[in-house]
Amino acid sequence: MKLKWVGVGAILLLGAVLVFLQEYANPSSDQASASTSQPPVVMGPGAADGEAALKLNAPGVIPVVAEEPPAPAAETPPVVDPAPPAAEPDDAGADLPFTGLSDVLAAMATLEAEGEIADVAQTLRDEMRSINAPRASARAGLLLAPLTSDLAERRQLISSALRQDQVFGPEFEDVGRMLRELNHGPLNSLHSLVDLTRYTVVSGDNLWTLCNKRFPALYGVSPEVGLVKLVNGLSGDTLRVGQQLLVPTASLAIEVRTRQHGLTVWLGEAALAAYRVGLGKEGRTPKTSFTVKVKQEQPPWYSNGRMIPFGDPENVLGTRWLGFQDEPGASGFGIHGTTDPDSIGKDRSMGCIRLRNGEVEELFEYVARGTSVAIL
Q: 193: how many CB neighbours lie within 10 A of its CB?
């Protein structure tokens, strides 16, 4: 009897998925206009801070700029000219006929326990092949992602869904968890998806000097220490002579989808990480491109002409600050943590991009100065 009901559940789940995919592949004019996506902007990182940064940091330590971040004051929001349009609804995509990812994840454990999961995965895979609509196919791939045992394929499917704007609002939480599991899994699913080169460790090498001196000279790239550790599965900073390191030569870039309140970190064409974010109230987060200029741990906050130190209850910046290079008509913006985690997924900031403290600390480890940020 139990198997019977599990089979019924699998059929109902698949039916809901297929109804969604069929309707989404041929949407009504209202749905089509509501879900129009913009192509992601992915640009290569610029130069690192150079010798000034080298002198400020001891070898083996992730570079931290000593200057204080130009954080926005509560009474003086970041300058935006012209004013951006009003923010769109928080949970974009919630009105679609079937959102699905949370339902698939919830049903997956039961289906797997009863041996039904392979049938569900195969049906989704067949549906992907038959759909002649890239966005609907990417959506089917997102639902397939947690069901496939091929970790590189899982990352590819997630990446495709993110690039086609098929991760809706709160689903960034589930996608972020899946990517985090891939990043720290037994096999690195990035290796077959991104451009890598090999470097042999010599006497005197450490991760900081490699990332800030030797790799830029040899390969023209300045990956952050945390990214190199992630790609190589390193838990510490110790290197040994003769050790082979994989060096990511693909560009790292950040993309923020304001409609979805979602942030994706791209390494070349592969999604490295994804987060649900908070944005500016009254549309104050500008839709434009920036580069990361400043990185600081435990940042102070400047408000109303005074400096509020890290740890003070009035300091709203959380545990990390990634400040952007000012652009014409847009200054004082950045990515930071928050003392108000309930604001994630909502429009409450003065224009900056908020993450939970644990997530901004993770992002901080991957992102080097000069990384591009596209806000769409």
A: 19
Please report, for residues 99, 170, 227, the alpha-carbon distance to residue 31 in angstroms, rounded to integers and kept in the order given.
13, 19, 39
321 and 297 inside one domain: yes
Q: How many residues does the chain have?
A: 376
Q: What is the DSSP letter of 278?
A: B
Strands 301-303, 372-375: pairing is unpaired
- The neighbour count for residue 218, using CB atoms within 10 Å, is 12
Rounded distance, CA 56 to CA 48, Å?
Answer: 13
Q: φ and ψ at 15, to 5 degrees?
A: -60, -45
Q: Is 336 designated active site?
A: yes
Query: Are residues 35 and 96 in contact, defined by beta-carbon separation less than 8 angstroms?
Result: yes
Domain assignment of residue 113, given as a range = 2-36+97-167
- Is residue 217 domain-resident? no
Cβ atoms 11, 218 nearer than 8 A: no
Q: Which of 184, 211, 261, 352 is catalytic?
A: 352
Q: How far apart are CA 279 and CA 344, in angstroms?
A: 8
Is the pTM of the predicted complex or chain greater than 0.90?
A: no
Do strands 330-331 and 79-80 pair parallel, antiparallel, or not at all (unpaired)? antiparallel
> Which of 146, 167, 188 is the C-terminal boundary of a domain?
167
β-strand pairing of 279-280 with 347-349:
parallel
The encoded tokens of residue 180 equal 């985090």
Residue range 304-352, pLDDT digits in tens = 888 889 888 888 899 999 999 998 888 889 999 999 999 999 999 988 9
Asked if 256 contacts 337 with a C-beta cutoff of 8 angstroms, the reply is: no
Under 8 Å between Cβ of 344 and 361: no
**Catalytic member of 184, 211, 261, 336:** 336
For residue 85, what are the contacts with CB-CB under 8 A and spacing of at least 6? Answer: 283
Alpha-carbon span 3 to 292, nearest angstrom: 54
